[in-house]
Amino acid sequence: MITVTDLAVLGRSLAVDTDHLLTRLQDGAALLIHLAPPADYPYESHKVEERIVCIQGKLNLETEAGTCHALLAGQMALIPPGLRHRFAADSDGVILTLFGGA
């Protein structure tokens, strides 16, 4: 199951000038990706957790189970290891993808 977090809402719920640890990454990678329609993205899965942050635009994530999650700028999706997923063909934006687990 994909979990979506609104980072702006989370951030504003914190006390001012305090840190909130989202995750620790070991042996991971951070990728900046530009998505533009139309595109045909294949399903994929990873051995580690994947966090996708929508920086600008709109991203639609699909799973093989048929669920779709829409992310807007400022939202983050957490994808567990092994879950087959893909970007929907109409995704249009800039995303930050973080691979790796605690």
Topology:
Elements: E1 3-6, H1 7-13, E2 26-35, E3 50-63, E4 68-72, E5 75-79, E6 85-87, E7 92-101
Domain Cupin type-2: 32-93
Pfam family, one: Cupin_2
Protein name: Cupin domain-containing protein
Structural class: mainly beta
Q: Tell me the radius of gyration.
A: 14 Å
Fraction in helix: under 10%
Please report which band the strand proportion falls in: under 5%, 5-15%, 15-25%, 25-35%, 35-45% or over 45%: over 45%
- Tally of strands: 7
Q: What is the number of helical segments per DSSP (H or I, 4+ residues)?
A: 1
Organism: Chitinimonas viridis
Domain Cupin type-2: 32-93
Pfam family, one: Cupin_2
Protein name: Cupin domain-containing protein
Structural description of this entry:
- This is Cupin domain-containing protein.
- Residues 32-93 form the Cupin type-2 domain.
- It comes from Chitinimonas viridis.
- The protein is mainly beta.
- It is 7% helix and 50% strand.
- The protein contains one helix and seven strands; from the N terminus they run βαββββββ.
- The protein has one helix at 7-13; strands spanning 3-6, 26-35, 50-63, 68-72, 75-79, 85-87, 92-101.
- Strands 1, 2, 3, 4, 5, 6 and 7 form a seven-stranded antiparallel beta sheet that branches.
- It is globular and about 40 Å long.
